[in-house]
Amino acid sequence: MKGIIFTELVGFLDHAGGPDFAEKVLEDAGLPHGGAYSRVARYPWQEAVRVVEAASRETGAEFSDLCQQFGAYLFERFTVLYPEIIGRYSDAEALLSHVEDHIHEDVKILYPDAEPPTVTVRNEGDRLRVEYASHRPFAHIAHGLVAGAMNHFGDLRDLEWLTSSEGGTRAAFAMTR
Amino acid sequence: MDKMEDLPPQRRAEILAARLERSQRALSDAEDALESRMKQLFRANQDLSLRESELARKLEIESTLLLGALSTIGMATVYGERERGFTLSEGANAILGLPDGEAATVERLVAALHPLDRDRIVREGRRFFSEKAAGVPHVYEHRIIRYGDGETRWLSWSITREESREGRPAYLLATVRDITEERQNKRRVRALQLRAERRVAELASLQAELAAAKERVEDTLSARNRFISEMAHAIRTPLAALTGGLELLQAKVRDDGLQDLTIARNASDQLGELASRLIEQADSGDEAPSPSFPGTAALPTPSTATAIPDQPKVLLAEDTESNRYVVERLLAELGCVVTSVENGAAAVEAVRREDFDLVLMDVMMPIMNGEQATQTIRGLSGRAARTPIIGVTAHSLQSERERLLSAGMTACLAKPVRKEALDTAIRTALISGRDVSTNQARFDHELFRRTFGDLPPAYRSRMRDAAKKDITRYAGEVLEAVETNDDEALSRAAHSLTGVSLNIGAIGIVEELAAYREAAPLGEVSIEPFREAVAACLLVVDDLYDALVSGAE
Question: Which domain covers residue B225, as residue numbers?
Fold first, then answer.
C-alpha cells in the first residue's frame, strides 16, 4: 500500500490523540521500522491494521469506528494534498462516480504499481449505491472516505451500510434522502 | 488530549527526537524509492528511444515503397502551346520506354503510336485546338509500341484546352497514364464476373429442378401415405365391428366353440395391430397437422358427484352403424343405459339437453368431429361441461392422444374397443373424471399373483371382474360418505373397500384411504389423492392380470 496512506495514518493519530498518544500507539504496534513511513515508498497493508489495532487497544474504541474516523480524516487531507483533483467536482456524487475512471486512473499513472480498490457507483431510484471491493479489508475506511466526501461537499443525505463481507474486503453503501 | 506544547519539556524532547529519527529513516526510504523510480524511468526512456528509432526506420521503408509505387504507376504531364510546341515531363520517358538521357518528344510519341490507332489519334490531334471545347477535359485511349522492348501498351489521356486570354496564347494541359495493367485487370475482373454470373444462373436452375423433383417426391409420398392411411382406417371400421361381434358372441359360445372364438379374436387382434402399424407408418411420413379448433379446452374439473351409478347413463357418439351396434351392445352388457347419436354436433345437443354420466365419443365423425364436439361441451355451462368424455380413435399415436386430452377428453380408447378396456375406462372416468397415469397405481404384485393363482383358472377372470366392480362400488360409497359427512357410512364403506383392495394387493387404495381418514379429523384434507389412487388401480388391473396371471398360465 502507498506510503502516503501510512504517513496520513500517523498524522491521524497525532490529530486525534495528540503526539504522546501517537508515539504510544506506534510503539505498541511493534512495527518493523518503528513507524518511519515515507510518502513515496510502499509498505504492507497489514502494518496499517496493526497500527489501528494498537490505537483501538489504547483507547478502547472499536477497530471499525477508528477506521471510519480515519477515512473521513483522510478525505479532508486529500482536499489539502490534491486540491486540483477534488476541485474538478461540484458534488460528492460526481466525485464518487468518477473515482474509477478519473481518480484511480490518475493514481495508476503516478504510481504504476499501485493497486487501488474498485469503487462502482450507480443510481437506484432515489438512492445512490456505492460498492467497494479490494483485496485489503478496509471497507470501514471506504465508508469514512465517502462520509468525508459528503461532508466536504455539504451533502446532507444519510449514508447507510447495505452489505458487507465478513473480512471487510467488500461492502455496499447507499446515499439516501 | 495533550498538544505538543502542553507536554513536559522532557517528554516533548523525547517525542521530537523519536520523530526526527523516524523522519531520517523515512527520508532514506524515500531516497531509495526515488532512486528505484529513476532507474525505472531511465529504462523506460531507453525503451522509448529504441521504439522511436524502429518506428522511424519503418516509416522510411514505407516512404521508399510509396515513392517506388508512384514511379511505377507510369504517369506524365504534357504542356503545349500551338505555336511554341510541347513539353513532356520526365515520366513520359518511362511510359515510352526510352533509355535514360533521351528526351521524350511529341514526335517520338507520334512515332510510337500503334498502327491501328495512329490515324485516329493524329486526326484528333490536328483538329483538337479548332474543334474541341475549351475548359473541359477530353479523354482518349490508345495503344503505343513501346521503345526498347517493343511491347504494346495502352495509354489514357485527359487533355484540357484553354483559350488565348489577355495576351497569353492558347495552350493545353494533359496528363497521360499507362493503363495497360489496369485494363488487363478490368478484363480479368469482368471475365470472373461473367463466369460467376453463369455459375449463379446454373445453380439457380439446378435449385429449381431440385425443388420441382422434391415436390414431385413429396406429392407421391403424400399420396401413398394418404392411400395407406385411408385403407387402414377403412379396414378398421369393419374390423371394429368384427371384434365387437366376437366380444358379444363370447357370452353365447360354449365348450369347444370358446377355443375357436379365441383363435378368431387373436386373428382379429393381429389385424387390428397391423392396421395400427400401417396408420402409424403413414402418419409419420405426413406432417400436415390435422384440423382442429384453435387453442385447447380447459381440462374438466372432476365432478363433485361421488356415488358411482349402478347403471351409468352413457351417450354414444359414433357415425358407423355397425360399430354403433357393437358398442351399444358392449355398453349394455356392462350395465350401462345407452343413448346413441351419429355425429359430434348431435352429441353436443344431447349433452346440452340431458344429463349423462359419461360420453363415449368417436373422434372421426362427419359434421362435427369428436375433438371439436369435446371442446364445445367443455365450453358449456354447468354440470354438462364436466361430463367425462372418453374418446375412441382409430389412431394409437401418443401425439394424437395428447391432442385429444388437451382438447378436454377425459381418456382415450383405441379401436377396436375391447370389453375389458371399455369397462376399465368407464370406471376410471367415473371415479376420477380426468386422465389418470398408471404410474400412480401401487400394487403388491406377489399378493395379486397369489390371489388369482390360488383360484381354478376358470374362475380367475370372473374374480378380476368382480374385484373391479366391488372396488368401483365401495370407492363410490366412500366418496359419497365423504360428501355427506356421514362418518358411519364412511367407516362401513372403508372397511369393505380395504378388504376388497387387499384381496388383490391394491395397496395404493388402502394407503390413500388410511391417509385420508387419519388426516380428516385434523382439518381440511383433500379426497383427490384417494380418488386418483382408485382410478389408477382400476386402470392397471387388466394389464397386471395379463402380465402376472393369464400370461403365466
Answer: 195-284
3-class secondary structure, B320: coil
CA B481/CA B306 separation, integer angstroms: 9
Which residues in chain B have their CB less than 8 angstroms from residue A37's CB? 22, 26, 29
pTM listed for this prediction = 0.38
Gap from B28 CA to chain A (nearest CA, Å): 8
Report the residue of A10, A14, A20 to disrupt the B interface, i.e. the one with the largest count of B CBs within 10 Å: A20
Q: How far is it, in rounded angstroms, from Cα B323 to Cα B242?
A: 9
The per-residue pLDDT for range A56-77, each reduced to its tens digit, is: 999 999 999 999 999 999 999 9
Do A40 and B27 touch, CB atoms closer than 8 A? no
- Residues B100 and B116 occupy one common structural domain: yes
- ipTM exceeding the 0.85 mark: no
- Could you say which residues from 13 to 72 on chain A have a Cβ atom under 8 Å away from some Cβ of chain B? 16-21, 23, 33-42
Q: What is d(CA A144, CA A71) in angstroms, rounded to the nearest whole number?
A: 4
Backbone angles phi, psi at A173, to 5 degrees: -120, 165
For the stretch A88-110, pLDDT in tens is: 999 999 999 988 887 788 777 77
Q: Which of B15, B25, B32 sits opposite A19 (nearest CB)?
A: B15
Helix or strand or coil: residue B260? helix
Interface A-B, measured as beta-carbon pairs within 8 A, has a size of 55
B203/B153 same-domain check:
no
- Considering the four listed CATH numbers 3.30.2420.10, 3.40.50.2000, 3.90.1520.10, 3.40.1490.10, the one that applies to the domain covering A71-176 is 3.90.1520.10
DSSP state of B292: -
Which of B11, B22, B37 lies nearest to residue A36, judging by beta carbons?
B22
CATH code for the domain of B253: 1.10.287.130
